[in-house]
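Exercise: predict the fold of this chain.
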Amino acid sequence: MYEKEEDMLDITKKKLEQVVVPEQLVNTAIQLGIIQAKAKRRKRNKTLWAFSVAAILILTLVTSIRVSPAFASAISTIPGMESFVHLLHLDKGMKAIVENDYYEVIGIAQVKDNITFTVDGIIIDETGAEVFYTLEAPHSLENIDYENIKFLNNSQELLAAISYDPPDQETGNRKEGTFSFVFSDIKKLSSMNFELQLEAEQANKTTVFKVPFTLKKEIKSGKIYTLNKTVEMDGQRIEVKKIKVYPLRVALVLEFDEENDMKILQFEDMRLEDENGEVWSSIQNGITDFGENENKENMYFLESNYFKEPKELYLKFETVQALLKEESYLLVDFAKKEIIEQPSDRKMEILNVGSNTIELKYRPIRENHMYSLFSQGENAKGEIIDIPRESNWGDQDEQFTEVTIDAKGIINPVKIEFVAYPNYLNGSVSLQVK
């Protein structure tokens, strides 16, 4: 019954033997995986067994994944490991989660329309969840996508921003990935019972999966630092209200003084730094803040240092995007296909205005990082207009963005607020948290 998995481990071991890493570490991990698998044959079903081996390997080998790209490549061939390797490279807070055994193996599968969807495991706290999954079928899964993704706690949907990478691995009949949920509010979860729901769509066919599971590990609470301290940068006053440290992320609550003459947009280098200079930086991908970015509380997310206990902790930032409030938007007449108002510094060039589109050109805001320039619009009646599509492309010298406005909501003129722009405050901030 388990010959396939043992063959997989033997193949993996041969791959690992070709990688230059500490030999004893590799052999120990592989042998431990095989021993654990044999010991649990009569207790575990096939799916859970396979993922248990993967969990053992990642806990043992996490250091080498960070050190050796070749080793990481070999490890990512093991079922359930590819998404882990990706996250470990991006976020050292995720590395700490794995090292401190906060990841929970689930290993529950559901089969529909000859497709097997498996919830491999989860990392969860009061700010959100990372749900690791595998999708398999005896036929090709190319061009498959997901719709109506929901995450439920005690049968109640958790309102959240959801992100995931398109399931486009080279293996046509097997996809591995992660659904990232960032809850709209930090909340106490009412029970340990959860359910992941989604629709997998391929070739005009929809397959609905609903996978319930119950957690066994404790969901850790946040460490709260209440500050209510005001800092100033280039004449703009910012109140740092609270810093809430959770396993997945740090939630930083800021409020901007209503007397500020500039609209604060993005904090490019916001970070926590300990007494030794170790840095936990702002999140590079996915949701980074909630709020209106003007005169209200805003929540920003940083990498987590939850499993660290520094003697001192500082909040620091220098590179802050901002615009004068009276110039922090585009005012567009789509009927005339013209821009009525825009920032006077002309750091962005309007290339074209269509019946419901705008194309812009500008110097890249930040190296190796593309910002969405807008989030929504407002028509002449004060009604919110969605921006269903914003395309970004370019190189290190020029950046281009094409924005598509929901045509049904257009009543001219339309006001579109910037949420990112290449204009910066002068100065820096360093605030001791602990």
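Check your answer against the key: The two ends are 54 Å apart (CA to CA).
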